[in-house]
Specification:
- The protein is α/β, with parallel strands linked by helices.
- The protein folds into two domains: 69 residues, Arc Repressor Mutant, subunit A; 282 residues, 3-Layer(aba) Sandwich (Rossmann fold), CATH 3.40.50.
- 32% of the residues lie in helices and 17% in strands.
- The chain contains twelve helices and 14 strands.
- The longest helix is centred in the middle third of the chain and has 18 residues.
- The protein is globular, with a radius of gyration of 23 Å.
- The structure holds S-adenosylmethionine (SAM).
- The site of S-adenosylmethionine (SAM) has 20 residues, from helix 4 and strand 14.
- Keywords: Methyltransferase, Transferase.
Length: 403
Amino acid sequence: MGTVGKFQPGQIRDGIAECLSRHGMDGASIGEIEAHMETAFGEAVASSSIRSYLQLNTPGKFERLGRGRYRIADAGLVMTDPAPDGEVELKGKPVYRHGKTRLFRADSLEWLREQPEHSVHGVVTDPPYGLVEYTPTELAKLRAGRGGTWRIPPSFDGHQRAPLPRFTTLSSAELDQLERFFRQFGEILMPVLVPGAHVMVAANPLVSHLVSYALDAAGFERRGEVVRLVTTMRGGDRPKNAHEEFPDVSVMPRSNWEPWLLFRKPVEGTVAENLRKWKTGGLRRISDERPFGDVIASSPTNVKERTIANHPSLKPQAFMRQVVRAILPLGEGIVLDPFAGSGSTLAAAEAVGYQSVGVELDPTYAELASKSIPKLAALPDRVGLVHVDPVGAEASDAVPVEG
Ligand SMILES: C[S@@+](CC[C@H](N)C(=O)[O-])C[C@H]1O[C@@H](n2cnc3c(N)ncnc32)[C@H](O)[C@@H]1O
């Protein structure tokens, strides 16, 4: 067995990168990399050196596909379109483009730090909440279908449920960390936004107060909450291991709504002055007669969309198109999703004709987004952008309910 000591600086790195580039999307095993290195250098490289180099650079440069199998990050991304004329310049190289959509693969906090002042006009995002649920370790457990933060809710009707992260297991130290994360996120986001830009953040009733407090502390104005009326499989369970003893008890209410927190970067002067100068400060009306409302009837994401984009937190187009449309009051500017996942915000922006930018850290989800954005964006608009007003008066979401 050879050692690292016999190689020039950078030789092992270049050898691994070359081997993985040749193997493309399917990646290579440690054994295949070892064989490649031996052929390339005429000398064996210790598999421990290969492993430690790969581990140190995952997920930045490499993506772990499974036990001992890796590929170059972004190997599966397809750049479909060239940059359109008049596109606002942003730092970094997008890994994917489609129509007016750009996707960057990066840590969004690092990415935001690099971006020019006043380059984004609205944010619609569904961030990670468990802090740990989107780490490579937890994602590997989710993809392997066992252990970790992700759990499959109980099935009462024979339908297989999608995995949900366990938010209630967050300790108070983790909740503090969550608040610090959102405070930092808010502070880094603030300069990148134009004055009057709205920020809409998906939350859940257990942590929304922390996010709200953190964004308020970062200097945003709280502008209310949009209630997504949706019945999920969260809550409603009887006490664990004591179902029969306490048949009339549920530990938490069955969740029938999802809060989407609404914030605004302070406007310059009056809203009218801000609208003239920055094109932001208000929310786009549904029509002459109907302002954007803060209760939107929705359904769980339907099977058709989940088949297109198999992300555990996929949000439905019927809902996303309504909130994304509202975020740019004059329909001008750029919408950002710093935690893009499989791209439901970006697809919604594409569908309503807005420029958008997404940032996603995980290479597998970035690749998924590159495939799903055009398909989600092309889905017919069956919702007609109608809101419920007042609560429960009308079920506007025509997308069929699929548990
Ligand atoms: C709740 S999911 C969003 C899913 C999205 N709503 C959709 O419909 O596909 C949050 C996403 O943020 C990504 N993420 C987590 N931390 C990140 C970070 N620091 N920078 C960029 N993306 C991150 C995760 O990989 C995950 O895909």
